[in-house]
Amino acid sequence: MPLLPKSAGAPRAAGLHRRSLAWHLLARLLPAVLLLAMMDTVATYVITRKLSSQSYDRALVDTARALARQVTMTPQGPQLDITWNSTRFLDVDPDERLYFKVLANGVVLGGRPELASPPDSAALRQEEEIAVNEPVTSAVEMINNARPTVYDTTIDGLPVRAATLRFQLDGVPIDVVMAETLNTRSRFIEEVLSVLVAGQLLLVALLGFVIVTGVRSGLDSVSRLSDEIETRSIDDLQPIAVDDVPTEITPLIAKTNSLLARLDEAVASQRRFIGHAAHQLRTPLAGLKLESELMLSRTLPDDIRQRAERIKGVADRMIRVGEQLLVLARIDANVRPQDSFNRIDLVELAQECGARWIPAARQAQVELALAAPDEPIWIDGDAVLLDQLLGNLIDNAIRYRQGPGNIVLRVQDAPPSLIVEDDGPGIGASERDRVFDPFYRGQGSVAGGSGLGLAIVKEIAQSHGAHWDLRSRPEFEGTRVSLVFPGPRIGTHLTRMARNGAAV
């Protein structure tokens, strides 16, 4: 049950409870998913960077070995082969700039002298360590078996990656240094990173979409259940069906059904009490009425006769109220209509009920007429309750008019309809919805009414799945109450939703 806010934090708490379940799950899962996506991106980035760096370093070392093979021994000492075309090595990638330096015993044989050699104190990364188990017999084997040193340095203000090979040629130490800029490496890492980030963002968005749509799809049965509950009448306390409902909702439905069962028992107890009380009052009221009639049958003084007539009038009204309470106690929207309905002819019902009300209508100077076809119009219903319904409509039409007038009972087919029309003062527009409430009496009501007549009409019509409509001035000259019933074999199998939907 909602509580009035006691502090500033109450509205915020209420807002949290109104949050969508799908967005609630998304808000809980999204931070964890983003964290995992970031961790995966970082791990993939680090591994990719390491593998790509190893691949580029291996290519750089291969270029350095190719350059080392261009060093030959001459009578003047080690020399760089003059037939060597540096363009083959330095123009491999137009996006990169390559630098080299060849040293023989510390003397520069070619290349850029300012290209730094590996620092002695640096933590050098070694690749392609090849153990030499046999004596070296040629310069090519020396170059192939030389252990490269790969490191980072700068030249011309540009960061470069360099690889150094150190070997001996006829006893002379040779150092070959090959370096390249980092453009291709950086571009490759940026492309990999952009693809990783885009893929992770797409994955997170897809996961969010799946969560939201999945939760909403899973709650479709809850939405249908909500629609069914919305269409129920206030008197329908039947248990809620748990078919095709998520198991997480089952405990809530079970508790709700338990509450409905207790409420149903309380309402049934109240109905039984009203029925028993009304039944117990019938005998003393009938005795009181009989005594008053016996008194009125004798010669009495005027003042005593007036009192006896008032006693008889009160007894008649109390008996009427008791009968109406018994009818209300008998109507149970949860049991009818499928249990006790029979095939009924609306034309015959209107004839018999109208005939019983002719004396009362004549006494009130009202002409009661019937407009009905000669053929029967069949519906499925409870004859006793429908007789009470029509009797209450006729009684209201007679009781709440002043002076002579006319009342017409109409029975129509396709669809089966029962209509009561009068040319009385009518019902105000502001009261047309309230006149069907129990114990409500409109403005200008005459004495003696109980306010239960139209309430009983509403309950009986609703239990039969009938649509009702009330028209009055200025739309109709007087008051017109129309009831449209479902046809035969339909009323006996009305679902709860169809019954409740009839109250339109």
TrEMBL record:
Catalysed reaction equations from the record: ATP + protein L-histidine = ADP + protein N-phospho-L-histidine
Q: Where is the Histidine kinase domain?
A: 276-489
The record's PROSITE patterns line, in alphabetical order, gives:
HIS_KIN
Q: What is its EC number?
A: 2.7.13.3
The GO terms this record gives for MF are:
phosphorelay sensor kinase activity
Q: Where in the cell is it found?
A: Membrane
Q: What class of enzyme is it?
A: transferase
Q: Pfam families of this UniProt entry?
A: 2CSK_N, HATPase_c, HisKA
| Segments traversing the membrane | 25-48, 192-215
Name of protein: histidine kinase
Q: What is the originating organism of this protein?
A: Pigmentiphaga litoralis
